[in-house]
Automatic annotation (TrEMBL):
One of its GO terms (cellular component) is cytoplasm. It comes from the Bacteria. Belongs to the IMPACT family. It comes from Flavobacterium enshiense DK69. InterPro entries: Impact, Impact_N, Impact_N_sf, Ribosomal_Su5_D2-typ_SF. This is Impact N-terminal domain-containing protein. Residues 21-126 form the Impact N-terminal domain.
């Protein structure tokens, strides 16, 4: 059964600090909705921690189509980004960015030590975050003449559909959203209505 919900973070995590052999690893987790948003957050952290050595991160976006990136930012290959991404996967969350900022303490940790430190800092950041479940929603635009308003509104109410936005003039347009699992039924009801158009919103 295809699921129509996913887990993500309610809000940004608290800052966490993990120390290993004088190196400091500051961990942060954020809910994000786009790669642009991730970039902005990383830029802000670079300003905040301008004297740090590495700003390693991983993010995952999407529910049916997954997009992810893992960045070692100068650490040895796969010693930072992938361990961070592994934690996003093990917490089962998406639309999430985890950034670990490292201050080098003068003692090399070796690849094994780095993997363990980045993994632990990412885990700590995600553990302080409130994880929530959200439904995967499909948005539709319903277009109709004003005279058909009542029948459209009655269905919206009966089916408990969320109105995202509406334009009410001579010709009306309402954007609704519904859980993925109810989407087909919702579409069918409106497409069978006389003089009412429904299209899925891109």
């Amino acid at each position: 059964m295809e699921t129509d919900s996913y887990k993500t973070l309610a809000t940004a995590s608290e800052e966490v600090l993990y120390k290993e052999k004088n190196s400091k690893f500051f961990g942060y987790a954020y809910p994000i909705s786009s790669e642009e948003e991730a970039k902005t957050i990383i830029e802000d952290l670079k300003k905040q921690h301008y004297s740090a050595r590495h700003w390693c991160y991983a993010f995952q976006l999407g529910t049916t189509k997954i997009q992810y990136r893992a960045n070692d930012d100068g650490e040895p290959n796969n010693s930072a980004g992938m361990p961070i991404y592994g934690q996003i996967q093990s917490f089962g969350v998406t639309n999430v960015l985890v950034v670990i900022v490292r201050y080098f303490g003068g003692v090399k940790l070796g690849v094994g030590g780095l993997i363990s430190a980045y993994k632990t800092a990412a885990q700590m950041a995600l553990e302080t975050s409130a994880i929530i479940e959200k439904t995967i929603d499909i948005h539709y635009l319903i277009r109709f003449d004003y005279k058909n308003m009542n029948k459209v509104m009655r269905i919206i109410k009966e089916k408990n559909l969320d109105i995202v936005s509406q334009k009410m003039e001579m010709s009306c347009e309402i954007e609704i959203s519904t859980r993925k699992k109810n989407a087909e039924t919702t579409f069918d009801i409106f497409s069978n209505l006389f003089e009412v158009d429904i299209v899925e919103k891109e």
